[in-house]
């Protein structure tokens, strides 16, 4: 899938989700910030780690042919989004991104590489069941 079509699809999906969140009853009269880009990144990351029927449903919802398309889109956009603000670059931005999984759930080496190299994110496995306080402490240190 070409870059422009991928961008159009992901923009449509993330703005649709954002619109539903912001128009929900729970969002009324509250101070709420929603990042369409963050929604897109997290759904793409979830898709990268999915298989079978879950993968098929996510790809359909995200209007993508494959998780490769989503990963490539992120890979192509990261250098553009995080340009240095110079005349040939773009806005200077930063974002915190990471995958935090319970230590009982194995992460495949391929998924770890996708998270690290394509999404420029960290992956961490922690004990959410027996050591909740330490897990939150480590999360807060990171972000």
Automatic annotation (TrEMBL):
InterPro entries linked to this entry: Serpin_dom (IPR023796), Serpin_fam (IPR000215), Serpin_sf (IPR036186), Serpin_sf_1 (IPR042178)
Cross-referenced Gene3D superfamilies: Antithrombin, subunit I, domain 2 (3.30.497.10)
Pfam families hit by this protein: Serpin
Gene Ontology terms: cellular component: extracellular space
Domain called Serpin: residue spans: 10-131
GO molecular function: serine-type endopeptidase inhibitor activity
Residue ranges that the Swiss-Prot or TrEMBL entry lists as coiled coil: none
Family indicated by similarity: Belongs to the serpin family.
Protein's name according to its UniProt entry: Serpin domain-containing protein
Lineage start: Eukaryota, Viridiplantae, Streptophyta, Embryophyta, Tracheophyta
């Amino acid at each position: 899938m070409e870059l422009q079509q991928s961008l159009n699809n992901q923009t449509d999906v993330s703005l649709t989700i954002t619109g539903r969140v912001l128009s929900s009853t729970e969002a009324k009269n509250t101070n709420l910030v929603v990042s369409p880009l963050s929604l897109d990144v997290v759904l793409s990351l979830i898709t990268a780690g999915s298989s079978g029927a879950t993968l098929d449903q996510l790809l359909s919802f995200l209007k993508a042919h494959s998780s490769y398309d989503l990963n490539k889109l992120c890979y192509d956009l990261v250098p553009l989004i995080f340009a240095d603000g110079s005349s040939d670059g773009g806005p200077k931005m930063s974002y915190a991104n990471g995958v935090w999984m319970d230590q009982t759930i194995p992460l495949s080496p391929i998924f770890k590489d996708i998270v690290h190299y394509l999404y420029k994110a960290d992956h961490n496995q922690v004990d959410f069941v027996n050591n909740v306080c330490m897990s939150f402490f480590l999360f807060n240190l990171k972000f």
